[in-house]
Amino acid sequence: MIIRSYQPSDAAPTLALFRDTVQKINAKDYTADQIAVWAGHEQSLAAWHASFMQHVALVALDEAETIIGFADMASDGYLDRLYVSAAHQREGVGKRLVAALEQRVVSSQYTAYVSITAQPFFKAMGYSTI
Fold first, then answer.
1. How many Å apart are CA 95 and CA 125, to the nearest integer?
2. I want to staple 72 with a disulfide (CB 3.0 to 4.6 A). Which of 35, 44, 57, 60 is the partner?
3. Which segments of the protein form a coiled coil according to its record (predicted)?
């Protein structure tokens, strides 16, 4: 697995990964209406890309250089997004992305608003629920 900085050409594949992951992984904890709103099919690719450019953003690639996960963090330590492909859950992708972000963004406190689905992962990473 390779972790590298987000590039403009990553916008479309990360948006597709996000939507697919929400629909396949988070659907067990949320209603169909909640998933439809969350997957945000009305969000433009330009807005998606612009949001990454405001943060430190990383992508995880497999051996074929396909994006299998991504994450981004604001300069104050706020972890905005962390998504891992449905096909690569529980392989350490999320841990590697979070660790790489925490190395790049020095903060006295790291925070995130996380889904019900992601709470066990973040607890295992040392985050506290408030």
1. 7
2. 57
3. none
Residues of 20-40 as b/e, b for ≥16 C-beta within 10 angstroms? ebbeebbbeebeeeebeeebe
Other C-beta atoms closer than 10 Å to the C-beta of 4 total 13
Which run of H or of E encompasses 38? helix 32-39
Which residues fall within 8 angstroms of residue 44, CB to CB, at 6 or more apart?
Answer: none
Question: Each residue's pLDDT tens digit in the chain (130 positions)?
Answer: 999 999 999 999 999 999 998 888 888 888 878 877 777 766 788 999 999 999 999 999 999 999 999 999 999 999 999 999 999 999 999 999 999 999 999 999 898 888 888 898 889 988 877 7
Which domains, from first to last, does the chain contain? 2-124 (3.40.630.30)
